[in-house]
Amino acid sequence: MLMPDDLLSLDTIRKYSKQIEELRSGLDHEVIAYWAKVIEADAIELSPDELKQTIQIIQDDLLPMKFNFKASKRAVPFLVQAIEKNLDNMPLATRLYFQKVEDAIWEEYQRYIKLGEKKEES
Asked: Beta-carbon neighbour count of residue 9 at 10 Å?
């Protein structure tokens, strides 16, 4: 027999329902595309004039969840800064997506920096 304490309140059910909906909608390619455009615009705004043309985020036509992040090596910190600036405003699933993208971009950038340092030492 269920006791009143065992039942979820209507408010709790609504809360869980909203969280599930946010997770589901956050992985929608249109939502991610929107945030990619916001990040691209912010990165361009943050970067100096000579780097503005080097920043571009392109959505794959065949795989709408795939995006190509293009930026000169000197523009990468501005791209990462733009991602960071927007994370708190994103739905949770979208935030996780862009955090993973940010990690991948930053790792690649660090590898590039280390290669440059090794070349200078030789």
From this structure: 9
Rounded CA gap, 22 and 28, in Å? 10
Return the bridge partners of 88, or none.
none
Query: What digits encode the pLDDT tens for the residues 47-83?
Result: 999 999 999 999 999 999 899 999 999 999 999 999 9
> What are residue 74's phi and psi, to 5 degrees?
-70, -20
Q: What is the 3-state secondary structure (H, E, C) of 24-41?
A: HHHCCHHHHHHHHHHHHH
- Let me know: does 30 contact 46? Beta carbons within 8 Å: no
Find the Cα–Cα–Cα–Cα dihedral 114, 115, 119, 120, rounded to 10°: -30
Q: Which two tokens stand for residue 81?
A: 């800064």
How many Cβ atoms sit within 10 Å of the Cβ of residue 4? 6
Q: SS3 for 43? A: helix
